[in-house]
Amino acid sequence: MADTVDVLAIAAHRDDVELTCGGTLAKAVRAGHRVGILDLTQGESGTRGDASTRAAEAERAAKALGVHLRFNAGLPDAHLENNEASRLKVVTLIRQTRPRVVILPFPVGRHPDHRIASELGRDACYLAGLAKYGGQGEPHRPFKVLYALAYREDPVKPSFVVDISDCFDIKMAAIRCYASQFDGAKAAGEIHPTGLDLYELIRIQSAHYGSLIRTPYGEPFFCHETLEVQDVLQLGVQSL
After folding, report:
1. Is the pTM of the predicted complex or chain greater than 0.70?
2. How many CA atoms lie within 13 A of 159 on its CB side?
């Protein structure tokens, strides 16, 4: 099907996935995987810009990343709820796209929509696999649910970090598509101001995550389950 993807990133607002996992999405595209983005709201309540401006920016950012599909659920910005109507809408889109991997926001965040998007996305991933739940499409449950951990300093270590060194410039090009949100900004989302330009803050943070795996740039992720290793001789990151 034309709408199916291997990886689906779900977030509350246009620009969220670019900030937290844009390099990972670009890397997946480069590896030959089909990649999609589901923005839950149109960002109409944001202080900067408006819904139509952000829609155009999101389209340009999707082209920069090379993703195959970008959807918008049209849920209310700053009023996101994990309710039955929202779950049905997201379940239908998960069944339509049938991803193997879903990337969600980390379930802790400053913006209420980020926290609720995480909960809503996880519930929808489970419910989409129930044949009798309702909603449109054939049942489908993603194999893996990951949480983008970027910019969080909660007492939880990343389960793993993706090396995005070769795709860092693509990530930044996608982020720069959101001029209405980021040009001249000192903070965004979970990125706290330090007095530096936002784009430089993103570079510094990405370099920090990369340093955890001894690479120039990285993006951190968390998952609840223990990860499997088949061959300890293939483990990366030198210990000493």
Report:
1. yes
2. 13
